[in-house]
Amino acid sequence: MRCDEILDKVYGYGGEEEIPFILQLRIRFHLFFCPQCAREIERFELARESLKNDFFYPAPGLEDAVMARIAGEVGEEDPVRDNPGGISTRAWSLTGILIFISLASSFLGLNFAEVAAAGGISFLLPIGITIGVVITCYGALFIGSHLKEFSERFGLH
Questions:
Q1: What number of other Cβ atoms are within 10 A of residue 83's Cβ?
Q2: Rounded to whole angstroms, how far apart are CA atoms 54 and 49?
Q3: Are 79 and 88 in contact (CB under 8 A)?
C-alpha cells in the first residue's frame, strides 16, 4: 500500500470503530518501513487522545450561574438586571440638567434679541419646537430606562 492509502485508512477509522485485524497488520508493516507515516499517525493519535480526554476543561461555577439565569432564579440584587444600561440615575439627572441649562443659555448670546426681532415668529417657532423635542426625547429615554425603579419608588406595581 502507498502512504496516502495508509493515511486515508487510519484517518477514515478515526477511533469511532475498531480497525480490522488484517488492516492493522498491513498498517503496522508499512509503518515499520516508512518513518514519515509513522510520525504522521503518531501525531494524529496524540491529537485524537487530547481531544477525547477533556480538551476544554469545565468551569465549575459557570454552569450553575448560567442555569440559574435561564431558570430566572437570580436574586433581586443582581446589578446587571437592576441597571441594564450601566448608567446611574445620578448621571442621567446631571446630564438632563446640563442639557436644560445649555438650551436655556443659548439664547443669551449672539444678539438674540435682534435676531428674534428680525426673524419674528418664523424664527422662534422652530427653536421652540427643537427645544421641546430634545427635552421630551431625553425625558422619555430617562423614564423608559428607569421604569422599574420609578414604579417601585412611587408604588406603581
A1: 15
A2: 9
A3: no
Evaluated on CA atoms 63, 67, 73, 74, the torsion sign reads: positive
Residues with Cβ < 8 Å from 149, sequence gap 6 or more? 82, 89
Counting every residue written for the chain, the total comes to 157
Q: Does 41 map to a domain?
A: yes
Give the position of cell 426673524.
Answer: 119
Whether 35 is in a domain gets the answer: yes
Please work out, in degrees rounded to the nearest 5, the angle formed at the alpha carbon of residue 35 by the alpha carbons of 32 and 37. 95
Q: Are 37 and 31 in contact (CB under 8 A)?
A: yes
Q: Which of 124, 145, 143 is nearest to 135 (CA)?
A: 143
5-19, 76-90, 132-146, range with greatest mean pLDDT? 132-146
At 133, the amino acid letter reads: V
The answer to whether 24 and 41 have CB atoms below 8 angstroms apart is no
- Judged by DSSP in three states, 116 sits in helix
**What is the residue type of 18?**
E
pTM of the model: 0.39
Type of residue numbered 140: A
Q: Is residue 135 included in any domain, yes or no?
A: yes
